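Why does this matter for the project? Reviewers at the last site visit asked to see concrete outputs rather than summary tables. In response, this paragraph embeds two records directly. Each consists of the residue sequence and, immediately after it, the corresponding structure tokens. Nothing has been edited or filtered.
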Amino acid sequence: MNIKQTGSVAVNTGKKGLKLRKLGKMTGLIILTLLITVIFTAGSKGLFLSIQNIKNIFIAASFNGIISMGMTLILIAGGIDLSVCGNVIMTSMLIASMMLAGIPWGFCLIAALMIGALVGLLNGISVGVFKMVPFVVTMAMNNVTQGFGKWYTNGVTLFNLPETHSIFCKYLFGVIPGPVIIMVVITLITAFLLRYTKYGRKLYAVGGNPRAAWMSGINNAKIIVITYVISGVYCGVASILMTSKLMSASPTMVTNTEMDAISAAVLGGTSLTGGVGSVLGTFVGAITIAMISNGLNLLGVSTYVQQMAKGIIVIAVVAIDAISNMRNKEF
């Protein structure tokens, strides 16, 4: 066997190994979901699988699912975004104040997307162009955005939003919740970007091996900036959805959003080291996180214990990701 043939065999073996690892992660996630279903169904005496509760789970998963899609793109690029919580709070407070000031509703929706995108653009330029550390930059941006939202509205809760704004949380045909439809649409858009566009292919290349991507002619900074902007737009969508659900906006309307998003993405098979990620996995991961929160609520578990449980989940998924990466390096 010559060198060319040997190389070809190695590449094919590597591809098969990667596919098997992805299949293994998805299988494990499905088993985990089924196990959670059995435990909580038994503990709640069947209430967990009631039609209304299933709707509640999907509605709860929709907000995190939208944020998680943006987080998945950023993690694939080898970055991280800890500013999503502040972005959602600031955007929500700003568009709520705009609505109450009588600014046309449609313009407020566009403003939400633009504000979210602006935060993403600032993050992207900082990380992609100026090579700042994503963890530090986005954590600082989280403080800036949360502080600005509170300062702009004096930290008060804004309510009595226009009734029109509640349309996003209506039910389609009286069955399918609006938030779930929006999450599915965002998921399909993200899947399309990753699978059928040059941007998606370049994103995996940048996250997998930045130097090799740069040497092949890819503008790494441009890809990173675009990725953070997309994530910011998704935060704008989530802001619209959350204010529509609550019909209000407050500085404490969401908490630990970034942790839930990271948990969903990594639980679904996205690597914290970049270059690997699955939209379907993140979708299932977001639902799994919502199932855990919902199940614990049905069992009457305190919010403090729930917070501990989510922290343990984050540690567990990060540990699994680290072990997986170690094994990959061995092969």
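We now turn to the second protein, recorded in exactly the same manner.
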Amino acid sequence: MFFNKTKAFDVVELIPERLRSGLAISDNKLCISSAIKAEPVVLEVYNDLLAQKVVSGFEFFQPTIFSDKFSHNTLSSFEISNEIQNFAINVWQEAFNQQASDIHIKDMGTYGLIRFRIDGMLNDFKIIDAYRSRELIRTIYSTMCGNGDTSFSYRIRQDARIINDTYLPKGMHSSRIHIEPTEKKDSPEGIGSGLYARLLYDIIKATGSLENRLTKLGFLKSQIETIQYLKMHSGIKVLAAKTGHGKSTALKHIIECLQEENPGKAFFSVEDPPEYHLEGVDQIAVNEKDSSKREEAYAQTIAGVMRSNPDCLLIGEMRYAPDISAGIEFAVSGHPVWTTFHASDAISILLRMAIILGRKEMSNPLDYICHNDVISGLEFQRLIPQLCPHCSKRLHDVIDTYDEKMAKKISRALHTEDDEVRVKGDGCEHCKFTGIKGQKIAAEIIAPDVTFFNLIRQNKIEKAKEYWIKEQGGITHLQHALQYVKNGNADPFITEDILGLPLDYEVSR
């Protein structure tokens, strides 16, 4: 259901209560139970909604089919849905005001919990009535999502997007929605739901040259120079990270700057779905709801762009063997390609990509991808929470409250004492009492050359990494993160938890 609730509400008030349970609005149509089709007021309602452009047509349904399809979304429940929808809009606005990246709405059985992820940390926002949490999840999916539908079920996994500006704070491009069924013994039938929303907007708001933007994101000078080098070459440049660690944001700024620098070139993107508006880029959405057909649809869309006279392509994310192969074909034709991927570090991009291609019975996939005209750049990043400078504490002053082993680990990792190392404080008005003030990227970027690729093909992974660090001056994302710790900008305990590695991991190996 996707319509103007404010206009429709005025019409609904005029409908007799006994008829509202036989009417629903879905996909811009007035859906009518055939049990009430002879009622004169039905035609009046349709004409009013048509005149106000709330609907563009109508459809009759047999009473049993209507009940199965629209039982939770008839106009009899319109007033309460409208109130819940307004509540949802306010939740999104408050999350935007607090610069949250995600909203979690969870049916806990006996109550509902709304949480915001801010600067990488989940914080409780509000506890609500259990019934209200279930209605909130249903209303968001059924009435606010452009590609949702009225057949919401707590029993199945569902995905959708909020793209209508009516429901989004000004400045937010869209919101990606994922709903998971959960086992909750106190929920109806023992089934609950969790709604997980990614809020897609540019929190950093970096502007200006590529160097200025990347510096604000946290990239080091040497890393920016590598990216500047990579943008001059064809082949695929792959940005990898865990979900929620800024790879789409970094790619957005790179592509926008490339387009500004090259206004005479044709830029295309293939995304499933588009996450940000990219000025000057023809953004093509992969519209395939059937997951079994999505791989081929993605690949076919990329292949279709080849016939559109492109100069540069952004692939939102490489997930499957067909779209990786299609991207490689695009790259070896001499075009630059930028994309994102999921991997545990920069070198693992190649290894995981080879595994995916190998599943499709491709022989020696590493030999296939380890060429500069295929893969020309590898980048991996994590977002590291930055300490509030007003309330952070010197580790040296509170070291007695921490494990002695951690102090030794920090000393080994930083090759220094803990005098400048700081930890999260109790919070203050400057950081909204979180102790954290933003996040910055800790990255590693590789511009592979022939020697590097030869080592990878021979499965000499550690040798390839050593060559990159010693001969190419590479810095790992762990080393980058440790710079934040050493300068007193990142808490060593939080940083270690985010990285999933001991701070002295590279020293102890």
